[in-house]
């Protein structure tokens, strides 16, 4: 594929090969047949408002970082593969409870099952944010290798889902609708890719300039889109000039886990990438409770989502809400359950009598 010239004549052939590769990769990830043996438990129960996984090669400082951030002891030694199972820890930041997972080091070929890599990446798929921990002294080749391993397992880092509408139907053939001019996809290429999945009847709407890979991701339907921060550890061993260059790399935070340097910058970036919103509760006739906020995701922060986070039964008795904060014009203001809340709003729920 790398040696094939990319032009109009070969685009259909390349699309077919990409679709076949994606199918074969999926069969590797989800092997056919019955369940395997019991094995040692690897995943950890999800707790808190968000979950962050530390992914990286062995001996880059993941366990030291977890120990110094969360105060949890994760075995640290001068040899590789010190951590053999998932070590959990919890930090409280801005009132939110965030679970940290120190995952065992992965090696090249992890997505194919080498060195328990499949289990490690499967746990990484369940995280709200991934910290890729890199050794600043080792080449940036490692960053590319880890990205390749995670992408092979259906994880897309710092990407948003493709803006493609896809709906299978019983009959009527392939119906392609493009809302913007396309540089790569046309009806023939779409038919070729869907033909590989034995789909001959579907409605497809392309709302942006999409690639063949993005269409395959939508058809496969098992991709997860996770934000990611690259942590360059061991900056105590490089010069100031090198540090200035590192700071220009996007999605990147240089730290020293051993000396606890630049942790505040890391936590601030972590909060920004998690996209969490804190909402304070106010019982009638009392002051707001600023000690324990209700934490919701930025894309699910309506009054209804807030009520469901407190208790499922509240929304049935909901009459209206009183809101103080930046999301309303007046302080307080009566709102319905569709109202979108902002960070650090104060809410009082009024129930039906």
Automatic annotation (TrEMBL):
**Record keywords:** Cytoplasm, GTP-binding, Hydrolase, Magnesium, Metal-binding, Nucleotide-binding, Nucleus
**InterPro entries, alphabetized:** Beta-grasp_dom_sf, DRG, G_OBG, GTP-bd, GTP-binding_2, GTP1-OBG_CS, P-loop_NTPase, Small_GTP-bd
Q: Name a biological process GO annotation.
A: positive regulation of microtubule polymerization
Q: Give all residue intervals belonging to the OBG-type G domain.
A: 50-275
Main location per UniProt? cytoplasm
Q: Which residues cross the membrane?
A: none
A single Gene Ontology MF term assigned here is:
GTP binding
Its Gene Ontology cellular component terms are: cytoplasm; nucleus
Q: Where, per UniProt, does this protein localize?
A: Cytoplasm; Nucleus
Residue span, TGS domain:
275-351
Q: Name one Pfam family in it.
A: TGS
Q: What is the name attached to this protein's record?
A: Developmentally-regulated GTP-binding protein 1
